[in-house]
Design a protein that fits this description.
The protein has a seven-stranded mixed sheet, sandwiched between helices. It has about 190 residues and is α/β, with parallel strands linked by helices. The longest helix has 11 residues. The protein contains six helices and seven strands, in the order ααβαβαββαβαββ. Helix 3 links the parallel strand 1 and strand 2. The chain is globular and about 40 Å long. The chain has one domain: Vaccinia Virus protein VP39 (Rossmann fold), CATH 3.40.50.150. The chain binds S-adenosylmethionine. S-adenosylmethionine (SAM) binds next to loops. S-adenosylmethionine binds next to loops.
């Protein structure tokens, strides 16, 4: 498979679990509240949702709360991150954790109604392989929601993201830029 992952804080490197505390820093809430992001996604409550690259679970509690009758799968390369996310969401029957690589997702085709990815794609060496995998595991009409944060060394520009998603078979439906344009949310639909 193209691209070996490398750990570190620079561009294109996988954010190390030893620094996970900074992702849960309360200051982050001033820039972007997880609840507001999940409200924007607009979950029905009964979907099967994949949070790809969940890290220590900044968004996971809000996703869990918005999926009371569905299923939430927390997925990450680093088992240590999954351990932290699991601790945050608690022992909920409808939440599972799965370790693996986003370039080769260990799920059957058409498993998920929604895939959510925040500040992850820029760390994946073969972004296109990852997006093709996302498209494969999405149900027909399923949605991919991507959250990018400016200032992140791995920030992906909107145009580049639209192009990459388009090539993988997902079409932009809507986009929202956050306060002071620090964040950018985009929703794509599997076509
Ligand atoms: C910057 S953190 C963001 C975590 C979380 N989404 C958030 O916004 O707080 C990136 C996460 O993506 C995960 N990640 C990076 N590359 C990955 C890959 N190829 N497969 C699965 N997870 C990956 C890392 O382990 C890390 O937990």
């Amino acid at each position: 498979m193209a691209g070996q992952v490398e750990f570190g804080l620079g561009k294109g490197k996988v954010f190390p679990h030893q620094k996970a505390g900074s992702l849960l820093n309360p200051v982050r809430r001033l820039i972007q509240s997880p609840q507001a992001v999940v409200r924007w996604i607009g979950l029905r409550g009964d979907e099967t949702v994949l949070e790809l690259g969940c890290g220590p679970g900044y968004f996971s509690i809000a996703l869990r709360d918005a999926t009371p009758h569905g299923r939430l799968v927390l997925f990450d390369l680093q088992p240590e991150m999954l351990g932290m996310a699991r601790k945050r969401v608690g022992r909920h029957g409808n939440v599972t954790t799965v370790a693996g690589n986003a370039m080769s997702l260990p799920f059957p085709a058409e498993t998920f109604g929604v895939v959510f990815i925040a500040a992850v794609l820029g760390e994946v060496p073969d972004r296109q392989a990852c997006l093709q995998e996302v498209r494969r595991v999405l149900r027909p009409g399923g949605r991919l929601v991507v959250n990018e944060v400016r200032g992140d060394p791995d920030y992906i520009k909107a145009g580049d993201l639209d192009r990459a998603c388009g090539e993988a078979g997902m079409k932009l439906r809507r986009r929202r830029r956050g306060r002071l344009r620090w964040t950018c949310l985009a929703e794509y639909v599997a076509v």
